[in-house]
Amino acid sequence: MRRLRLGFVILIVTMASIFTGTLTAFAVPALGYVIAPEGYRISVPLGYSVDRVLTGDYENGMLKNPEDLFIDSRDQVYIADTANNRVLKMDKFGKILKVFGTKEDKLNLMEPRGIFVEDDGDIYIADTGNNRIVHLSPEGQMIEKFVAPKSDLIDKDFPFMPTKLVLDRSGNMYVTSGNDYHGLLVIDGQNQFQGYIAPNKLKFNLKDYILRKYATKEQREALGKVVPPNHRNVTIDLNSGYLYTAIENTTIDEIKRFNFLGINTYPADKHYGEFTNRRGIITSPNVVDVSVDKDGIITTVDSNQRKVYQYDQEGNNLLVFGGNGDQTGFFQEPVSVANDSEGLLYVLDRARGEVQVFRANHFASLVHKGSRLYYDGRYEEALQPWREVVNIDSNYIFAHRGIGKALYKEQKWKDAMAEFRLGEDMGSYSNAFREYRHETLRHQFGWIALIIAVMGAALYYSIVALTAYSRKVLASPAGSGNPSIQNAILTIFAPREAFYRIQSAPRYMPVIVLVLGMLAARFFHIYFTSFHFNLTRPEFADFYYEVAQLIVPFFLFTASAWMITSIMDGESKFKQILAACSYGVIIPYIIGTVAQALMSHVLSRDELSIYNGISTVTYCWMGLCVFFLIMTMNDYTVGKTIWVIVISILTAIALLLVGILFYILMQHVIDFFKEVFLEVYISGF
C-alpha cells in the first residue's frame, strides 16, 4: 500500500512537471560544456579533474571563511584565512610552511582579504579589518605599513578598506577598497596616492530612468543613489602589464582587461558567465575572481553559479566545469582562483574551507594549445591540435574556427567557409565567402555576366508587364476580373486606388491567404538566408514564437487603428481596415523579406548596408501604405493621419503590455492551484 501511495505521488508530481514544462527544461546539464556566442550551451568533454584537495591542518586549525588565494613564482600557496585573522603559506601539496598572524609574530592581522607576493618572496597583505596594507619579508618580518593615503582626490565617503591588491614592476599598488566605485586606487611605494585607474561607467537604464523621473522625492530617496559597479577582484599579468578585474553587481562586462591608461581592451558589451533559470528562479552571474596564465587563458569563478569559466583573449568561452554540490569537483562558494607554473588550477571554496586543485586533461590541453597558437597567428601550427579536438568532440566550435583560419590562410575558401559555419563565426565566414566570390567571378565571369543579364532583363520586363497590367486595371471598372490579384498589383503601383477598391468590397479570404504568405516568407527567410546574415538559426527557430511575433503585432495594430479611427470620426470599419492592412503591410513585407534572403547569397558582410537597406526600404514602404490606407479610407488630412497612426501604435503597445500582465497573472494563478492540488493529494496519502 505504501508503494502504491508513493507511486501515485510520483505520478502526480511528474504530471505537474510536464504541465509546466519544467521536467525537461531543467534537466541536469552535461558535466562539461561551453557557452556559444549566442548564449546557448554546447556539450563537450569535461576539461578538468580534481588532482588533490588542500585544507588547513588540525595542528593549526582548519580554514574559516577564507577570502583569497595566491600562488607565487615557486608554486607556494598563500591563503587569506579571513575569519581566523591569519595568512597561511603552504607548499603545493598542502604542507604548512608558515603562518602569518600568530600571537608570536605580533602582526595583529584582522580579517585579511587579499594577498600579493612578489618574485623575491616579499608579501603584501590587504589587512582589511585594520584598514591597512602590510608589507612582509619572506620570513614574515614587518617591513612597512600602508595606511589611508592623504589626498583631496580621494572620496571621503569611502574610507580606506583594502580588500584586494596587486603590484606592478615599478612598485605601484593597485587596490580595491571596500565599496569605492571610483576605480582601483593607485598607491606608490611611499604611500602616496597617484589617482584612480580603470573606473567603471554607469550604463543607461531606461527602467531606472523612468522610475526616477516620475517618482516622488521620498520614493527617489528610498531607491537610493545609483552608482557604477565596483571591482571585486584584480590580478595582473606582469609580462604585458594588463590589469584583469572581476566586476560585481553587474550583468554585463563582468570581466575587464585594462592597459596602463586604464582603458578596457577586453571585448565589451558582453555577458560573461551565464544566467540560469531553475523552477522560475533566475540566477545571474557573479564573477568574484579572475586569473590569467602564461598563455593568456583567463579563468574566472562565479559564486552564484558555483562554476569555473575559462575564456580566450577574445572573450570566447573555452571550458566550463563545477557546479553546486558537496562532492569533489563541485563547489559551495568559490571565491578565488589561481594558476601555478604547471598549469594546475587552484580554486578556493569559502564555505567548504578548502582548495581544490584541478589538472587539465588531454582535451583541455589541446584546447589551450590550439588557442595559444591561434592568437599568436600561427594558424598552420594550430591546425593539428584543433583537428585532434574535433576528433574528440566535433561539436567544439572554436576548433572549427581554428581550422577555418588555417584553411583561409591556405586560400581554400570553400573549405574554410564550411569550417567557419561549423564554428558559427559569421564574420570569418563572410571574409572567406568574399574571397570565394572574387575567385568565382574571375574564373566564371562570362557565365555570371550572362546570368545577371538574363535575370535583370526578366526583372525589368516583369515590372513593365505588371505596370501595364495595373494601368489596364485602373482603366477598367471595379469588380471586373479577379479583385484579389488586381488589388495586390495596385497596392504596389497605385496604393490609394487599391485601398478605395478594398474599402468598397473587403473580403476575409485574401486576408487569410496573405497572412499565410507572410508566415511563409518569414520561414523562407529563416531557412534560406545565407549563414553570415542569418541571425535566427533554423535548428533553434521556435515555430510558435515566430508566428506570434508576426501575427500579434499585425492584429494588435489593426484593432488599435480601427478603435482610434472610430473615436476620431473615421469612416472605415474593422473588416475594411483588416483587409487594407493585409494588402498594405503584408505584400511589402513578403517582397522585402524574400528579396533580402536571396540577396544574402551574393553579398558579404562588407555590404551589410545594402542588406539592411532592403529592410529599411521595406519598412518605409509598409509605413507609406499604412499612411495612405488610413488617410484614404477615413478621408483624413495629412496631419490627422499621422496623429492617428501614432496613437494607434501607442494603443497597440498598451494592449500588448496588458496582455503580458494578464499572462503573468494567469501563470501565478495556475501555479497556485497546482500547488493546492499537489498538497491535497500528497497530504491525503
From TrEMBL:
It comes from the Bacteria. It is a multi-pass membrane protein. GO terms for molecular function: zinc ion binding. Keywords: Membrane, Repeat, Transmembrane, Transmembrane helix. The keyword Transmembrane helix applies. Its main location: membrane. It is found in: Membrane. The keyword Membrane applies. Residues 491-658 form the Yip1 domain. CDD domains: NHL. It holds the Pfam family NHL. One of its GO terms (cellular component) is membrane. InterPro entries: 6-blade_b-propeller_TolB-like, NHL_repeat, TPR-like_helical_dom_sf, TRIM-NHL_E3_ligases, Yip1_dom. NHL repeats lie at residues 97-139, 318-361. The chain crosses the membrane at residues 445-469, 508-527, 547-565, 577-598, 610-630, 642-665. This is Tetratricopeptide repeat protein. It comes from Cohnella pontilimi.
